[in-house]
Every structure is written in C-alpha cells, then in structure tokens.
Amino acid sequence: MKRYDDTMLFPFDAHRHGLESGEGRATIRKLNKIHSHYGISNQDYLHILAGHLVCAVDWINAYGWRPLCDNEVRALVLTHMGIKDIPKTSS
C-alpha cells in the first residue's frame, strides 16, 4: 500500500509545486534517488511514462472540460527524469 501511495503522491507533489520550482525539482530528485538503486532501463521508464501520463492525457481529453492543447501535453510528459527517446506520438 505504501508503494501505491508513493506512486500517486510523488507526481502530485511535483506538479503541485511546479516542475520548474525548487520544491518540484527536489521531489523529482528524491524520486530519481529512490529508483537509482535498481538499474531500471530507459525502455522500462518509457513503459511507466506511457502508463501514467499517456493514459492521463487520454482521460483528460475524453472527460475534461476541453481537450488539452499540444503545449499542455508536452508539459505533462516533461518529467526531468532523464528519460530518452520519448515518442512524439502514441502510434
């Protein structure tokens, strides 16, 4: 349960403060430090990114008060986590 809670709280906290703020960057640094001990591949990070963010974009576009513009989608996938080769589209 703690892992699930942390999985939900870290991104919330980072976005609450803003990814460019000192607090938001500190949250991302802490998350990166936690994951640095596991040797997670870039491909695995891309899989998680897709699961967490692409699904969120699809949900917002389907049920939000308006679809997200391209700049908003780019802002959501900007993670500062060192993930490389993020696809421009889901296809």
Primary descriptors:
91 residues, mainly alpha, 4 helices, globular
| Computed CA radius of gyration, to the nearest angstrom | 14 Å
Could you say how many structural domains there are in total?
2
- List the total number of helices: 4
**Which spans of ≥5 residues are poorly predicted at pLDDT below 50?**
none
Helix/strand-derived category reads mainly alpha
Q: Helix and strand succession?
A: HHHH
Organism: Streptomyces noboritoensis
Protein name: ER-bound oxygenase mpaB/mpaB'/Rubber oxygenase catalytic domain-containing protein
InterPro entries: MPAB
Q: Layout of SSEs?
A:
Layout: H1 2-17, H2 22-35, H3 42-63, H4 70-77
Helix pairs in contact: 1-2
InterPro entries: MPAB
Protein name: ER-bound oxygenase mpaB/mpaB'/Rubber oxygenase catalytic domain-containing protein
Word description of this protein:
This protein is 66% helix and 0% strand. With 91 residues, it is mainly alpha-helical. It has two domains: 1-39; 41-91. Helix 1 (2-17) runs antiparallel to helix 2 (22-35).
Briefly summarize what is shown.
The chain is mainly alpha-helical.
